[in-house]
Design brief:
By secondary structure, this protein is α/β, with parallel strands linked by helices. It contains nine helices and twelve strands. It is globular. The structure holds calcium ion (CA). The site of calcium ion has 5 residues, from loops.
Length: about 240
């Protein structure tokens, strides 16, 4: 057995999806651990301490959200929710409870794998490192100097306002994680997400995207999921 394989716990009660995803993970070089219920997931989680969890919500014994809560009580282990529940409210609730990302069924294997890679990669950008003197963040052509509060693309400085910088720094520290509007607003302005503050966030984000040279409809560095939030994207999609 290769020791350095990432261990991914897949919690899914539907055997065809479970087999499909497990095979996909194994062929991509990950070790897939399997659980068919919340209680089985707890046992596997505690025995193997996986590097990442892919979590279905509709499980036979309890709602998958219970397992999410259970893990988040003491661990930042990344969690990707994989669910047929596709409303904005479902996504926002799971993300605000601490899920790193949310993929809705039906899904494409390529998309799920991209999210897995993105979340695993983002876990290597430790936010602690960013706060240390000399802390830098690099993602493709984007570079952030946290000390100087400067942002560069291909070596050229992008002039941002304080608020725009704070948003970019926050997203970079959570690179790969889908951040809900309310999580961003709380971190940047300290308030709760009302219509006014969401508008303010969207205006700032539009300015950032313009300054970053994003063309309309192009994902660039930041993905916007309408009604849900923003994610700095570690993967080219
Ligand atoms: Ca299910």
């Amino acid at each position: 057995m290769i020791k350095n394989k990432y261990k991914i716990l897949l919690v899914e009660d539907e055997s065809n999806i479970r087999n499909l995803v497990a095979t996909m993970l194994e062929t991509s070089g990950y070790q897939a651990l399997i659980a068919e219920s919340c209680s089985a997931a707890k046992t596997v989680y505690n025995s193997y301490l996986p590097d990442l969890i892919i979590l279905d919500l509709g499980l036979p014994d309890m709602d998958g959200m219970h397992f999410l809560e259970y893990v988040r009580r003491d661990s930042p282990t990344p969690i990707i929710v994989l669910s047929a529940r596709s409303t904005e409210k479902d996504k926002v609730t799971a993300l605000d409870m601490g899920a790193n990302d949310y993929v809705t069924k039906p899904f494409s294997s390529a998309e799920l794998l991209a999210r897995v890679r993105s979340v695993l990669r983002s876990n290597r950008y430790s936010s602690v490192e960013g706060r240390l003197p000399g802390g830098r963040f690099t993602l493709r052509d984007l570079e952030i100097d946290y000390d100087a509060r400067q942002v560069f693309i291909s070596g050229a400085e992008i002039k941002l306002t304080q608020t725009e910088y704070n948003i970019i720094a926050l997203l970079s520290e959570n690179c790969g994680k889908m951040m809900t509007y309310s999580a961003i607003i709380k971190a940047i302005w300290g308030g709760c997400a009302q219509d006014g503050s969401i508008k303010k966030l969207q205006v700032n984000m539009a300015n950032i995207r313009k300054k970053f040279g994003a063309k309309l409809g192009e994902s660039n560095y930041i993905i916007n999921e309408l009604g849900v939030g923003y994610r700095m994207n570690a993967e080219r999609e």
